[in-house]
Design a protein that fits this description.
3-stranded antiparallel beta sheet, 4-stranded antiparallel beta sheet, globular, Muramoyl-pentapeptide Carboxypeptidase, domain 2, alpha+beta, 43% helix
């Protein structure tokens, strides 16, 4: 009996390479469908994204209403719960797929929604004064957005944003409550509550490597019962993050140390015990 033929390629399904070939074709079709629909969402909502989004929602207010949607606008929109889920998903698609983002920027598919290649590969950053161990560092750090108007040091930000994307694929939404802090901001927090805030100059937030992540506990007054915390405990090491030394009191506080050091930290049995105390 002759094998059933693939309706797309005419290939004989009995051929050894058939499963791989048909899977790749289906994935490509799905990708093209996602891309087309994402472009349509951006085109249909261009005026809103470029002009109607309140300046406070944009991560770069200087670009407000400039006739162009950039990556920062997409990042802000993807996290704006007041927008439709379809539009948020479309924005997230371009954030998660740099190749699609560059294609939109250079192909003209988005008509006036043109995004420069600079926005694809070069995160817009600002300089920030950094502190470590109570001392100001000689050189300022490059601070890159992590969403919600917050920033982290460039390498830490890239790792955090990748971790957010990975969590999203697992159905877990990570939202930052705090990132880099200036000396003045840390001083205010310390004066407000010296039992929780580190002394100015000693906080990892001032080095741009710390992030406080919003946790939504399933059990009252138990932040470690949250899906976010459980996901972080299983996956943060792959992205170079560890909980702070005060993890028992601040399970929301995570520090970027790099993948190698993070994996060593999580491999330590004493640290594992600390996670669940």
């Amino acid at each position: 009996m002759n094998g059933v033929r693939d309706v797309f390629t005419g290939a004989d399904t009995s051929a050894p390479e058939f499963p791989l070939r048909i899977t790749e074709k289906i994935l490509r079709m799905a990708y093209e469908w996602q891309y087309a629909n994402a472009v349509k969402q951006l085109k249909d909502n261009f005026d809103y994204l470029d002009n109607a989004v309140p300046p406070g929602m944009l991560l770069n207010p200087m670009r407000y209403g400039n006739g162009k949607i950039d990556r920062l606008d997409l990042s802000a929109a993807a996290r704006n719960e007041n927008l439709s889920q379809e539009l948020r998903d479309a924005c997230q698609f371009f954030i998660d797929n740099p190749d699609a983002f560059e294609r939109l920027a250079t192909s003209g598919d988005g008509d006036k929604t043109i995004i420069s290649k600079r926005d694809v590969n070069t995160p817009i950053c600002i300089k920030g004064v950094a502190y470590k161990g109570g001392k100001q560092l000689d050189e300022p750090v490059d601070l890159v957005t992590i969403g919600y108007g917050l920033r982290m040091e460039r390498e830490a930000a890239a790792a955090y944003n990748a971790m957010v994307a990975a969590a999203r694929k697992d159905g877990v939404i990570l939202k930052p409550n705090s990132g880099y802090r200036t000396h003045e901001e840390q001083e205010k927090l310390y004066k407000k509550d010296k039992t929780k805030a580190e002394r100015p100059g000693h906080s990892t937030h001032q080095a741009g490597i710390a992030v406080d992540i919003q946790l939504n506990p399933t059990k009252r007054n138990n932040l470690k019962s949250s899906e976010e915390y459980k996901w972080l405990c299983k996956n943060a090491a792959e992205h170079g993050f560890i909980p702070s030394e005060l993890a028992r009191d601040e399970p929301y506080h995570w520090i970027y140390v790099g993948k190698e050091e993070a994996k060593e930290w999580f491999a330590d049995k004493n640290n594992q015990k600390q996670l669940n105390k």
